[in-house]
Amino acid sequence: MWGDPEQTVKDIQAEILETLNFPSTTGMEIEVAQKRECKVHVKLWDKGKVIFYMVVIKEINVEAMWITVDSPFGRDRMPVEDIIGVECVE
Asked: What is the dotted CATH code of the domain comprising 9-88?
């Protein structure tokens, strides 16, 4: 249950990803990419279209359910619920 002081951030992230029916491999790729700070291709669902981004994941905000990314155009946020695929490039 969220709010349990014994729960780690990793446990909470896993719960959120499971709640969203997020493929476990995508959740793991997000976590690995953030830890490695490597470039990733992110596939995002936006208004009925699939959009591809090349970014570096800087932060995973579990409470707000978004990730912070750096791209060639600057820093941005992406809602976790819209991410349909992540693949490390490096």
From this structure: 2.30.30.100
pTM of the model: 0.67
Name residues whose C-beta falls within 8 Å of residue 81's C-beta, 6 or more positions apart in sequence: 20, 65
Q: Tens-digit pLDDT profile for the chain (90 aa)?
A: 445 666 666 666 666 656 555 555 677 788 888 888 889 999 988 888 899 999 999 998 888 889 999 999 999 999 988 888 888 887
Decide if 78 contacts 33 (C-beta within 8 A). no
- Burial classification of residue 80, based on how many CB atoms lie within 10 Å of its CB (0-12 exposed, 13-18 middle, 19 or more buried): buried
Distance from C-alpha of 90 to C-alpha of 79, rounded to nearest angstrom: 23
